[in-house]
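HUMAN: Spend a minute on the protein record below and explain its fold to me.
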Amino acid sequence: MKKITILLLLAFILTMLGTVVAWGASTRDKIADYTVQYRYLNGISSALTYDIYEEPGRSNDEVIESTLKKVRASNNKDIFRITHVNDKEISRTKWAKYGGVINSRFKNDPAGVKAASKPPTTSTKEVRVFINGKQVTFPDQKPIIIQGRTMVPMRAVFEHPDVQAQVVWNEKNRTVTATDRSDKTIVFKIGDNYYTVKTGSKEEKKYSDVAPRIQSGRTLLPLRALSESLDFEVNWIDNERKVDIKEKPGNKRKLLPAEEWEKILKK
């Protein structure tokens, strides 16, 4: 009986110690976060964001720098690079020196070092875009091809009468949010290859190998990513330099009459 009592007392003490430790960890304030891009031997790429918490006796900058140093010094062979700190491209922060390729095995990886070190190849030859057989008009900035991907001004496609997605630009966060009439929402962020597709309560992260950018004062988005996220079929006709976007068979999109949609856009 005495032995059981001692064991129960010991278990109680250990439980309390664990609770105190956990409570102490949970009360630390988050001071930053950083995103790491991973590349695997099978060619798949992914990214994860991690939180950084305050540490007693150290400034926030010291803790952040120490964390980024540890990531770069780690032996994780799948780490490609640190891409963001606090949702900002690392190259645009005071921590820029911790950017760049981390693992030496990517030195012979065309999708790794070469892609990171060379500026994206851009083709300015005219590209025509059609939605359900209707040619899309681009009054100023024309579609361009970057690294084999067609990039288009966002509003010309999202606000097309056969798409009818309302667009919100957030200057502070540098995000584009488009919601169509079925309440499907897509969120792109300038400079970020990952975008979000929300349908009802379901939220999905997707990846585009070319990130949105701003060129000549216009926000350019990857055409295939935004079209397929809105449930369109996308075909590239190479000899005509034409992108043909069509409604998927059987899909009945909620659309207003063209005149009514035009009135909404003018408000």
About this structure: Residues 17-26, 107-119 have pLDDT under 50 and may be disordered.
